[in-house]
Specification:
Order of helices and strands: EEEHEEEEEEEEEH
Bound molecules: dTDP-4-keto-6-deoxyglucose
Largest sheet: 5 strands, antiparallel
Shape: globular
Radius of gyration: 15 Å
Number of strands: 12
Helix content: under 10%
Strand order of the largest sheet: 1-9-6-11-4
Low-confidence stretches: none
Amino acid sequence: MDNVSVSRTEPIGDGSGSLYVLEKQSKLPFEIKRIYYITDVASCSVIRGNHAHKQLRQLLFCVGGSCEITLDNGVDRMTVILDDPGKILYIRPCLWREISKFSKNATLIVLASDEYNEQDYIRDYEEFKEYVRK
Ligand code: T46
């Protein structure tokens, strides 16, 4: 699917823990304007997201636990399981997303290309399909 890619960053580990680095030159495809994180999700049946962004680009990874990200471009769907701090999901604009199956200790970090702007959201699936069709 266009607009999605998954990359890996390998930890620097020496027995005292794992250190992960996302550096501008190699791993950051846009300037980061905002960072947010989702944690303490009450139950594995919770589904977050259910929207698309018109312009926003994001990098997502779970530093602890796991969750599933289902992406939909209006035609095809795919699911990426984020279950490893070194697994980085890059989402470009115009993808409907559902975030589900949060494990108990899941902490999902999002690096975003822009500040929060509700005008950038499409929260209705039919409206999203019409938007991508045009
Ligand atoms: C995505 C997943 C992983 C703010 O006020 N500022 C912010 O920066 C954000 C992200 C949200 N909000 C407010 C807006 C809503 O009233 O917090 C409420 C929940 O936000 P949202 O519907 O965006 O939450 P999620 O967890 O469904 O989705 C967010 C991202 O928006 C989304 O793009 O991929 O996290």
